[in-house]
Write a structure and sequence with these properties.
binds lysine; alpha/beta; binds pyridoxal-5'-phosphate; Lyase, Ornithine Decarboxylase, Chain A, domain 1; about 30% helix
Length: about 475
């Protein structure tokens, strides 16, 4: 069951013969786990949410992020049902805008934010503040003030400085925020090093092994203006192996016992974070939310029974697993360059500014010709962007049909998480629009940036 994050070779000049792709099967196929649930071909053309992608490109332009609204809502419902006796807080960092915040509220989820900006979006969406959790390893004073003034449900403290700051700000305002202590459980999550967050040698949380976590609990309890409600742990992201979650849950339960023994206090909540992997390429096997819920409930329950503790209320914080599979990026092909004996470079009208994950983590993606079907032979390709970097790669190795040509639309699957939210304006490229599709209708939920947007912050324009 241990599937490691697909972190391929980075920046290596991998020749096709050294890194053969599995033979292309059906280049037109849409593997259900990888594509949004509504994705299908009609007369050869990809449709998402009942809408023809050629129509989407024509109306809204490319590159375009397309979200299957019903796919996102259904996954949220499945998590909410699996954790019916706990809480599911969507991790907004995966992708947040007011529409998505409202969908997820309607489906019964709470929300995690990790910056003043994400909090501002949540508030603009009218998300109930008591269902918002505020995360971050270096929240500024201004952000903490904003969170306290808004009355967010929980603040997850991550440093001794933050505990002192929060205590001071709460006292100043005469409020008593609910607080969780983020614990570094020492778990080595099987994922890419950049997105593993519970081993000791990184910036998040209070170490369990050094005793810092218990010290943080002592310091929070010493401040009567803070209400300690539980412990938090997040071991990393894009994880397929459940062992890490199980070890973390076990270690947190042990800490709950120590806190009970030292302070005579049984903390009512345990937040086990997010990190559930999704399918990007064939062979990725995501977990079913119910299986995750059953396993976490069983581990924590067993530990609690063993130590005579009441079962705490469990919270999880999936981000990618809610919005990832429902999102697709549509690009238009601009150039097709055959590099003799190596591969064909297919350049599209976006790239690392709308999907940095390939360059950053060596992430793998699935891509198909979307505007038509083709029965041409497969050609070994690399899907690249338009930026001034040779590392500007969207899909490192893939098969595309030999008759692919300029003007064709290609679609990259499972780009709903950490693509638009990590997008940049590198090379002053405007960030793409985001469109929601459902029941044959499409609507813009985040509009495309314009040159005016790009110049808006330049203080000397026109001077
Ligand atoms: C504290 C916290 N919770 C939840 C998440 C969501 O992770 P994922 O999108 O992998 O579910 C993250 C991001 O990794 C995180 O840092
Ligand atoms: N941004 C990462 C996930 C890290 C989430 C933040 N803790 C990704 O694209 O996979």
């Amino acid at each position: 069951m241990s599937r490691v994050h697909p972190a391929g070779p980075r920046h290596a000049d991998v020749l096709p013969e050294e890194h053969p792709l599995p033979p292309a099967d059906d280049l037109n196929a849409l593997e259900p786990r990888i594509w949004p649930r509504s994705a299908k071909r009609e007369n050869g053309v990809l449709h998402v949410g009942g809408v023809d992608v050629r129509e989407l490109a024509e109306r809204f332009g490319t590159p375009l992020f397309v979200y299957d609204e019903e796919d996102v809502r259904a996954r949220a419902r499945e998590y909410a049902a699996a954790f019916h006796d706990g809480e599911v807080h969507y991790a907004g960092k995966a992708f947040l805008c007011t529409a998505v915040a409202r969908w997820l509220h309607e489906e019964g989820l709470g929300l995690d934010v990790c910056s003043g900006g994400e909090l501002a979006v949540a508030l603009a969406a009218g998300f109930p503040v008591e269902r918002i959790t505020f995360h971050g390893n270096n929240k500024s004073l201004a952000e903490l003030e904003k969170a306290l003034d808004a009355g967010v449900g929980r603040i997850v403290v991550d440093s001794f400085e933050e505990i002192a700051r929060l205590g001071y700000l709460a006292q100043e305002r005469g409020v008593r925020p609910k607080v969780m202590v983020r614990v570094t459980t020492g778990v080595e999550a099987h994922t890419h090093e950049f997105i593993a967050t519970a081993h000791d040698d990184q910036k998040f949380g209070f170490s369990r092994s050094s005793g810092a976590a218990l010290e943080a609990v002592r310091r929070v309890l010493a401040l009567s203006q803070l209400e300690l409600v539980g412990l938090h742990s997040h071991i990393g992201s894009q994880i397929f192996d459940t062992d890490g979650f199980e070890v973390a849950a076990h270690r947190l339960a042990e800490l709950l016992v120590k806190i009970r023994d030292e302070h005579g206090l049984e903390l009512p909540e345990l937040d086990l974070g997010g990190g559930y992997g999704i399918a990007y390429v064939p062979g990725d096997e995501p977990h079913d939310p119910k299986a995750i819920a059953d396993s976490l409930r069983e581990i924590v329950g067993r530990e609690c029974r063993a130590y005579g503790l009441a079962m705490p209320r469990l919270t999880v914080e999936p981000g990618r697993a809610i919005v990832g599979p429902g999102g697709v990026t549509l690009y238009q092909v601009g150039t097709v360059k055959d590099v003799e004996g190596l591969r064909t470079y297919v350049s599209v009208d976006g790239g690392m500014s709308d999907n940095i994950r390939t360059a950053l983590y060596g992430a793998e993606y699935t891509c198909v010709l979307a505007s038509r079907e083709s029965d041409a032979a497969p050609m070994l390709s690399r899907l690249v962007g338009k930026h001034c970097e040779s590392g500007d790669i969207v899909v490192r190795d893939l098969w595309l049909p030999k008759d692919l040509s300029v003007g064709d639309l290609v679609a990259v699957a499972a780009t709903g998480a950490y693509c638009r939210s990590m997008a940049s304006n590198y090379n002053y490229v405007p960030r793409p629009a985001v469109v929601a599709v459902r029941d044959g209708e499409a609507r813009v939920i985040v509009r495309r940036e314009t040159d005016e947007d790009l110049l808006r912050l330049d203080a000397e324009v026109g001077v």
